[in-house]
Amino acid sequence: MSSARDAVFPAGRQALYERNRYSPAIRSNGFLFVSGQVGSQPDGAPEPDLPQQVQLAFENLNAVLAAAGCSFDDVVDVTVYIVDPERNFERVWPVVMAHWGEAPHPTLTGVGVTWLYGFQFEIKVIAKLPRAAAA
């Protein structure tokens, strides 16, 4: 029995993932498990503007989903992490909602945190792979 992981890498960011030693996503049993995505610039540095950081987190997430043949419409479960949500929620949430799509929406867990390695927002998802992408 092989324990090889079916990793998914978006174009252009492989070195960043290799340096940090994790896979952006793993396909398993018809689902795509996506690592937390942050609003990082191409070199991995945090985008300083919070709304733009959230926008970049979604762009990075969408690149991982696309590399697996998915889109946000295939997402079934979302976890978001926000540093100091009492202060930052109102600046973050309009950007999140711009990417959320139509009902029925995925499940959602929101977590307030004190530290995200220099970031203020992170999004982690599980997506159902379309039949063609699941093979």
Automatic annotation (TrEMBL):
Gene3D superfamilies: RutC-like. It comes from the Bacteria. InterPro entries: RutC-like_sf (IPR035959), YjgF/YER057c/UK114 (IPR006175), YjgH-like (IPR038743). This is Enamine deaminase RidA (YjgF/YER057c/UK114 family). It comes from Roseateles saccharophilus.
